[in-house]
């Protein structure tokens, strides 16, 4: 059996005019507000305890969209990963399903945060409910205008090096001109090159609102449409250097083709 479709948003067609992991300046909310979100949990090899480390979005009952950085390295590969869906609180409640396999985009690792996207297959299907629902992802090659109001959500740290949130939080930020973002990051000398396949966001020259460590792989929403995958950036909620998310529109075709081409054997 193959998945034959993924729900896509017909949305603004043509004109939508430290760095692993990464909600700062936001407020607590509930999973009912974001039922397509899941926690990605990591098994600690020393303590043998599972805990939330990244996030993701439900593509179908058997597939999750997340960041490639969350499924890279021997201890981050799928045998040590599972997802928790339908849970407001970190590591508590909801439905736990183990990961069967993960496919990172083939260009991930070639240039900093470029192509930081992964499609995850679950060992068994999720059961949809009012807290577990399929996400809507943006159509291919859509362009998001600068200064567009978007929402980030997750269970990550509430400040740089601060405590991890025990409850899902969300925060409103604004998209930032890609060229300006690239110019600022170029001054850091980091192995991060901001490209057209990324969305920069925050409150420019003010800061205080952003994703943070533990939010990677989670969604950037425009309305109820997933347009980005939280990826990284310099510090959290920095006034000078915006947060960086993978632009889903750049990879929608790859995401759909990966899901549709995957058998259940």
Give an account of the 3D structure.
By secondary structure, the protein is mainly beta. It folds into two domains: 8-29 and 136-249, Thrombin, subunit H; 35-134 and 251-260, Thrombin, subunit H (Beta Barrel), CATH 2.40.10. It is 7% helix and 32% strand. The chain has two helices and 15 strands. The chain has helices spanning 178-186, 252-260; strands at 8-9, 27-28, 37-43, 50-60, 63-66, 81-85, 95-104, 118-122, 136-138, 149-154, 169-176, 198-202, 219-222, 225-232, 243-247. The strands form two sheets. A six-stranded antiparallel beta barrel has the order 10-11-12-15-14-13. A six-stranded antiparallel barrel has the order 3-4-5-8-7-6. Strand 3 (37-43) and strand 4 form a beta hairpin. The longest helix has 9 residues, at 178-186. The protein is globular. 49% of the residues are buried. It holds the Pfam family Trypsin. GO terms for molecular function: serine-type endopeptidase activity. Belongs to the peptidase S1 family. Keywords: Disulfide bond, Hydrolase, Protease, Serine protease, Signal. InterPro entries: Peptidase_S1, Peptidase_S1_PA, Peptidase_S1_PA_chymotrypsin, Peptidase_S1A, Trypsin_dom, TRYPSIN_SER.
Identify the notable features of this structure and list them briefly.
Thrombin, subunit H, globular, 6-stranded antiparallel β-barrel, 6-stranded antiparallel barrel, disordered N terminus, signal, 265 residues, mainly beta
């Amino acid at each position: 059996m193959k998945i034959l479709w993924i729900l896509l948003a017909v949305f603004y067609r043509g004109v939508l005019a430290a760095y692993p992991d990464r909600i700062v300046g936001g407020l607590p909310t509930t999973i009912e507000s974001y039922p397509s979100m899941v926690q990605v949990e990591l098994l600690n090899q020393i303590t043998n305890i599972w805990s939330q480390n990244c996030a993701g979005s439900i593509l179908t009952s058997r597939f999750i969209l997340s960041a490639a950085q969350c499924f890279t390295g021997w201890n981050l590969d799928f045998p040590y990963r599972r997802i928790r869906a339908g849970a407001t609180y970190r590591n508590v409640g909801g439905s736990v399903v183990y990961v069967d396999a993960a496919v990172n985009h083939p260009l991930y690792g070639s240039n900093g945060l470029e192509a930081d996207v992964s499609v995850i297959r679950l060992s068994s299907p999720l059961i949809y409910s009012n807290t577990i629902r399929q996400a809507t992802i943006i159509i291919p090659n859509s362009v998001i205008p600068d200064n567009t109001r978007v929402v980030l959500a997750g269970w990550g740290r509430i400040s740089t090096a601060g405590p991890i949130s025990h409850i899902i939080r969300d925060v409103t930020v604004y998209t930032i001109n890609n060229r300006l973002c690239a110019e600022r990051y170029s001054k850091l000398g980091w192995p991060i090159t901001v490209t057209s396949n990324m969305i920069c966001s925050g409150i420019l020259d003010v800061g205080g609102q952003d994703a943070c460590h533990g939010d990677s792989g989670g969604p950037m929403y425009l309305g109820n449409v997933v347009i980005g995958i939280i990826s990284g950036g310099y510090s959290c909620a920095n006034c000078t250097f915006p947060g960086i998310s993978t632009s889903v529109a750049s990879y929608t075709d790859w995401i759909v083709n990966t899901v549709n081409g995957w058998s259940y054997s």
